[in-house]
């Protein structure tokens, strides 16, 4: 397997990655290209764009200028801060409750609404339908969180049509930031095709309906995208803020922690050293473990690669983190095996046909083993030439101890018990449900 000479991504990274003649991946080149962008000009363009929609909403007598899809995470806090406090719009926050919430995620969602004073609409999926969909999509494409991605990528558009709010504002373009799927010159927007092809793995809700799965139309109704005529008549658009502002997740996390009381995790995680991202749902570890079982890399590869690109971590340090985390079976797997009413052997058997045979092979005992790893490519040709200059702000430093975990990190203390979190959020959990 070929690995990036700069970061840690393999050539089979999803949703797609390209290596150039110097062995550097498209995700690293995307990150590098940000230094060539006229961010002042782009911010001016964003300001003018948002002013247009604010005037349009006022003329229509609509109290909401835009929709922000949120989960309650660091990006949700920062997006809402920018849109409301910096640009002066009144956003309607929209979230899809996938039923896989962590107590910390619930706390942070309530914190977002309270701290920034925004209205929120929250759709809650019923667990019976979620179980049927998760079982079927695990067996079909190896994803227990299809309903989550389909929900957060669909429900905001349903709300847009219902409340006649034509502008939807997303944060970063995740696939661009990780693997360089698109360039900053493309200025891509969120579309129905993007939603289906990448977030929903090529499936529309009706594709899930069959007798074997027991999935009926009622189970997938929440994931029905509005008709093209409704979208076109209203002129619905979805933009990414990362096309207009220099996106730096760490700096933004530090900002919302200090200013808006966003709470990161505390203590060791199963599958990554990062404490401020992917904290909202406890299915994420299983979702990421499935990526490892299929393609041989996981969340530590994602997180360490971003640290390397920022110069806060060396490639060698990143390799050690991948060795420590990427293979780990998450403790939450037991919870989801029980929820899906399957055995652990079912879980692994269903995934076996989806393993990438360029990285996985079965030994004589029928055990799947990886035939390569980034750990075997520490001294590949081109690594030295591709190095990123190191900055003073090291990942594992005292100033960052609340953002990353390492073994000799000073004790951060345990998360407060669920009862304390419930007391903190109080009646704030009683959100509006369509």
What can be said about this structure in brief?
With about 425 residues, the chain is mainly alpha-helical. It has 2 domains: about 35-245, Rossmann fold (3-Layer(aba) Sandwich), CATH 3.40.50; about 265-420, no CATH class. The protein has helices at about 25-35, 40-60, 75-85, 105-115, 125-140, 145-165, 175-180, 190-200, 215-220, 230-235, 250-260, 285-295, 300-310, 315-325, 335-340, 345-350, 420-425; strands at about 65-70, 90-95, 120-125, 165-170, 235-240, 360, 370.
Describe this entry's structure for a reader.
A hairpin with a 5-residue loop joins strand 6 (360-362) and strand 7 (368-370). The protein folds into two domains: 36-247, Rossmann fold (3-Layer(aba) Sandwich); 263-419, no CATH class. The protein is globular and about 70 Å long. The strands form three sheets. It has a three-stranded parallel beta sheet with strand order 1-2-3. The chain has helices at residues 26-33, 39-59, 74-86, 103-116, 127-141, 146-163, 174-179, 192-199, 217-220, 228-234, 249-260, 284-295, 299-309, 315-325, 333-340, 344-351, 418-425, and strands at 66-69, 91-97, 119-124, 167-170, 237-240, 360-362, 368-370. Helices cover 42% and strands 7% of the residues.
């Amino acid at each position: 397997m070929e690995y990036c000479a700069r970061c840690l991504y393999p050539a089979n990274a999803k949703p797609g990655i390209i290596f150039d003649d110097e062995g550097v991946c498209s995700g690293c080149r995307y990150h590098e290209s940000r230094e060539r962008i006229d961010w002042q000009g782009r911010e001016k363009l964003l300001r003018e764009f948002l002013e247009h929609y604010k005037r349009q909403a006022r003329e229509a007598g609509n109290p909401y200028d835009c929709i922000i899809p949120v989960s309650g995470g660091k990006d949700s806090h920062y997006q809402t801060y920018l849109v409301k406090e910096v640009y002066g719009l009144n956003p309607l926050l929209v979230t899809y409750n996938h039923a896989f919430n962590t107590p910390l995620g619930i706390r942070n969602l309530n914190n977002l609404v309270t701290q920034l004073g925004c209205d929120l609409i929250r759709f809650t999926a019923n667990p019976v339908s979620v179980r049927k969909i998760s079982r079927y999509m695990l067996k079909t494409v190896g994803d227990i969180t299809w309903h989550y991605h389909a929900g957060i990528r669909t429900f905001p558009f349903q709300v847009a049509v219902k409340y006649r709010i034509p502008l939807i504002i997303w944060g970063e373009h995740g696939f661009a930031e990780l693997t360089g799927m698109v360039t900053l010159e493309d200025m891509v927007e969120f579309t129905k095709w993007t939603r289906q092809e990448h977030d929903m793995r090529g499936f529309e809700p009706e594709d899930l309906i069959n007798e074997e799965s027991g999935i009926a139309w009622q189970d997938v109704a929440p994931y029905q995208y509005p008709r093209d005529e409704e979208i076109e008549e209203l002129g619905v658009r979805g933009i990414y803020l990362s096309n207009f502002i220099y996106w730096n997740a760490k700096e933004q996390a530090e900002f919302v922690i200090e200013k808006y009381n966003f709470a990161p995790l505390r203590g060791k995680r199963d599958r990554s050293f990062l404490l401020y991202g992917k904290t909202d749902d406890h299915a994420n570890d299983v979702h990421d473990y499935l990526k490892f079982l299929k393609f041989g890399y996981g969340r530590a590869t994602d997180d360490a690669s971003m640290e390397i690109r920022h110069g806060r971590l060396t490639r060698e340090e990143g390799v050690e983190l991948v060795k420590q985390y990427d293979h780990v079976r998450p403790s939450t797997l037991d919870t989801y095996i029980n929820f899906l009413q399957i055995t652990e052997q079912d879980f692994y058997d269903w995934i076996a046909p989806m393993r990438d045979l360029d990285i996985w092979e079965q030994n004589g005992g029928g055990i799947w083993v990886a035939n390569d790893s980034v750990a075997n490519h520490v001294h590949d040709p081109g690594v030295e030439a591709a190095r990123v200059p190191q900055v003073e702000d090291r990942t594992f430093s005292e100033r960052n101890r609340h953002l990353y975990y390492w073994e000799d990190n000073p004790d951060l203390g345990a998360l407060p018990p669920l009862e304390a979190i419930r007391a903190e959020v109080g009646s704030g959990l009683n959100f509006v449900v369509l």
